[in-house]
Write a structure and sequence with these properties.
This protein is about 30% helix and about 20% strand. With about 475 residues, it is α/β, with parallel strands linked by helices.
Length: about 475
């Protein structure tokens, strides 16, 4: 692996390991389900979310790096006053999420209606705090990508629609979150970004393009990072979802080695002059799975669920929850585990592991050899393209129905102050633009304060930082 672009600080202590393992690749269906799964309940207006007081000597903390944050509509729906209480003075970018792309090329604005009259106030707040206000336009459908990107006229129509949308909402630009792009549309997507950039520059709009955590030294991806970075103002590397709600084994959302390798390869592709266009996205959430074991990599028995960090913090600090915290040295990531009585609905019944209807059966309404639930994971099967067998079938079949019911566990992998600090060191060492947050409203203030404190301290010590030798597969950093 090329290693010239990023040299990590010596204070990072990790063992270089292999890739993320099973469950690392997200399907198109998983891309949609991942963000849909984040529609959890956030705290009410009395909670402490992403709000804290700065010490007297920390009043300059907006500055050392860019801080980009997505703000999903479901967070606002639960708590319409939360946006007022965000630490706006720390944000460089506020991205309203989301405006889906429809099959006819028109942008769906229905999610924006959830914000109601707050939209104008949010735009004004961003202006008052010198925060770039962006609209997030999304597309997670492989077929739709191919239909729009491969046709010059349709592609340009979408460009015009985006530019008009920005003006309609008095925004400063757009954040593109196009996922599950077919590899054969690599050139077309690059053209799309370039054409959008030309139109955006005419009106002084900003473009941020979200890209996944990949090995960018491989040309066989849907993202031509050099050309995309040249055209866009920033690229947002989604430093999470290596393991996700659809994974078949438990594991870290963003193993350190995966993050390092992706940023390292990206920097080699785009060159050092473009490092200040790169934002490393981090997750303020975790994923909990029902699984057949209490160790990392345990087989997953049912689709996972997402939890915001503020809820995870409550669980790990509540003795009555029976939670045991652990730390993966290989992945530099925390997780907690707790014994489970079973799956509550549709699969493992409330009574625990059973052979009856609604439990583990070969023809019931729970897990079956024909798929997950009735007809598969969704009404048409695992997804609309059709996956005939449940992705958890192998794990489930390994449990012997005619023997003593196995001990089931719940594992939740997440990010905390310590795991995120290692990612911030990648940002600092690589000279990246800053950090991106998925998502605003998921924190209880701890993660944000830790981030700000880290970069503030690094800015003070900039001239005394010692850097490690170039990384190789045999190095322990």
């Amino acid at each position: 692996m090329a290693c010239g672009a990023v040299a990590l600080l010596v204070v990072v202590c990790v063992v270089v390991v292999a890739g993320a393992g099973a469950g690392a690749q997200q399907t198109a269906d998983d891309s949609v389900q991942s963000y849909e799964a984040h529609r959890w309940d956030t705290e009410d207006a009395t909670g402490d979310l992403l709000t804290f007081d700065l010490a007297d000597d920390e009043e300059d903390l907006k500055a050392p790096v860019k801080v980009f944050g997505y703000f999903p509509h479901w967070v606002h729906h639960k708590n319409p006053r939360l946006w007022r209480r965000l630490s706006w003075d720390l944000l460089s970018h506020f991205a309203l999420f989301h405006f889906p792309l429809r099959p006819d090329g028109v942008i769906d604005e229905s999610k924006a209606q959830i914000f109601g009259d707050s939209l104008h106030e949010i735009a004004q707040k961003a202006q008052d705090t010198d925060t770039t206000f962006l609209l997030t336009v999304t597309c997670f459908d492989e077929t739709l990508h191919r239909y729009i990107l491969s046709n010059d006229a349709r592609r340009r129509e979408v460009v015009e629609n985006i530019v008009n949308l920005i003006g309609e909402y008095e925004a400063d630009g757009v954040a593109l979150d196009f996922e599950a792009i077919p590899v054969d549309q690599r050139t077309s997507f690059t053209l799309f970004v370039a054409e959008l950039a030309v139109k955006a520059q005419e009106k002084d709009y900003e473009i941020v393009v979200a890209v996944p955590l990949l090995d960018y030294s491989d040309d066989h991806t849907a993202f031509d990072l050099k050309k995309i970075t040249d055209a866009a103002d920033f690229v947002f590397v989604m430093g999470y979802d290596v393991h996700h709600v659809g994974s078949v084994n438990t594991g870290a959302l963003a193993p350190f080695d995966s993050v390092y390798a992706s940023i390292d390869s990206l920097m080699d592709v785009i060159g050092p002059d473009n490092s200040e266009k790169v934002l490393l996205g981090v997750g303020h959430y975790g994923v909990e799975w029902l699984c057949a074991g209490d160790r990392a990599g345990a087989p997953v028995l049912a689709r996972g669920s997402s939890l915001p960090f503020n809820e995870i913090s409550k669980l790990v600090n509540d003795p009555e929850q029976g939670v045991r915290t652990d730390w993966s040295i290989d992945d530099q990531a925390p997780f907690f585990k707790r014994a489970s009585d079973g799956y509550d609905q549709g699969g493992y019944s409330q009574g625990g592991y059973s052979q009856g209807q609604g439990g583990y059966s070969q023809g019931g309404q729970g897990y079956s050899q024909g798929g997950y639930g009735q007809g598969g994971y969704s009404q048409g099967g695992y997804n609309q393209a059709g996956h005939g067998q449940s992705p958890y079938a192998d794990s489930l079949s390994a449990l012997q129905v005619d023997q003593q019911p196995p001990q089931l566990w719940r594992q939740c992998w997440y990010e905390d102050e310590q795991s995120l600090r290692a990612k911030y060191q990648v940002v600092n060492a690589g000279g990246l633009a800053g950090v991106g947050i998925w998502a605003l409203g998921y924190d209880n203030g701890n993660l944000t304060h830790s981030m700000v404190t880290y970069f503030h301290d690094e800015a003070k010590n900039r001239n005394t930082i010692h850097r490690a030798p170039r990384r190789s597969q045999s190095n322990v950093i």
